[in-house]
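Handout, section B. The chain below has 332 residues.
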Amino acid sequence: MDIRKLDLPEHEDSRRLYEEVFSEDSQSFVDYYYREKASDNQIYVVEEEGEIRSMLHLNPYRLYVNGSGKDVNYIVAVATQKEYRKRGYMASLLKRALRDMYQAGESFTFLMPASESIYLPFDFRTVYEQSGKFCRKEDEEIPGIEITDAKEQDCLELAASANRHLAEQYQVFAVRDEAYYRRLIHEYESDGGKLKVYRQNGEIIDCRGYFPEEDGECPKIMVRIVDVRRMLMALRLRSLMGVCFCVTDPVVEENNRCVTLTGTEFSGVMLMDGKRENAEGTIGIAPLASLIFGAKTVEEVCMEEGVEMSGRMKGELEKWIPLSGIYLNETV
């Protein structure tokens, strides 16, 4: 088994496996994906007998996280040829990609699972359910609202409007720019849909996707912490706190550490290496993600296997402000 990252000119070589495994995707969507998304992403593959048998794509996004910009990868197109499944190829690709993302200085990664059970063993945890906001026929009857198909000349205004509104409501979202909306227009068109712009008094107030046959399914988003120190530094605090604890991670060895976390609502988080003899508890990388992203409370996390906390540690962790305001509605 040979695992490697394809060079950019080789990305098209993975298309055959994509079309074989994701046969439900239309030809026009696959054309769009390989023309636009695979033009600047990373593709990890397992090769056997000179052919690509398994793959994993990392699609780059700039995320807004508590007011700061972070480069994060969206894991997509995880696929293995039918005859080569159950050989551990996906596990090897995930572990390699996670370690590489750590070396690249990334805080966390995210994906949309075909099944949550596939990724739970790799310490991914569900933190968000995508909202199914689509343009409906009855929206055209709303007084004072003009709805039109998005055009490329709208993209800059769309980005400015979206970033402003999202920053007011959410702690975590994909930063929009002109290129983001150009791609999104092409993405909807490739799947037989349209991106619709809502205007009131000439100003953009919303944009929504439109498909002739609306899909009512709301996919879930799972996250996986890549670098525990960078992730903890993204937190904000309710009040003065100080706690020392150990983190365990079976994949990214560098995350197995003891940390001392202090700070106030004004200073933010200050992080130092801690001493194990001073630790007030231990938490795995997966339950830590559930806690940081607000998917579970401190008490719920304490019920997970391998988690131990003193009563004082529980109280201190309650002072974190979780990253529960999430808006990650990207498809690929």
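Note. Residues 227-321 form a domain with the Nonspecific Lipid-transfer Protein; Chain A fold (CATH 3.30.1050.10). Compare this with the example in section A.
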